[in-house]
Write a structure and sequence with these properties.
Blueprint (H helix, E strand, L loop, with lengths): L23 H6 L1 E7 L7 H4 L2 E10 L2 E4 L10 E3 L1
Antiparallel strand pairs: 1-2, 1-4, 2-3
Length: 80
């Protein structure tokens, strides 16, 4: 799986906090990257592979909702 690197979105295309009626910075900080390694005998391992990557949303302290179903199941290792 490719390594995770820091990258930036150009300022010209970033959302402006003044355009929203809610705390945009707080909302954007709740988006997290997810990585997981599934066991080779997992039900979807043959189809989706054993290494998964995607995004999730921090709903409250200690509770993350993955944005894609491939993260549901038993993983042998995960990184936030």
């Amino acid at each position: 799986m490719p390594s995770i690197s820091d990258w930036k979105i150009a300022a010209a295309v970033q959302p402006r906090p003044d355009d929203y009626a809610y705390d945009l910075d707080r909302a954007l900080q709740s988006v997290v990257g997810l990585r997981a390694t599934m066991p080779p005998d997992a039900f979807t391992a043959d189809t989706l592979g054993t290494e998964r990557a995607g995004h999730g949303v921090l709903i409250r302290s200690g509770c993350i909702s993955p944005t894609a179903a491939p993260f549901r199941g038993r993983s042998s290792a995960s990184t936030l």
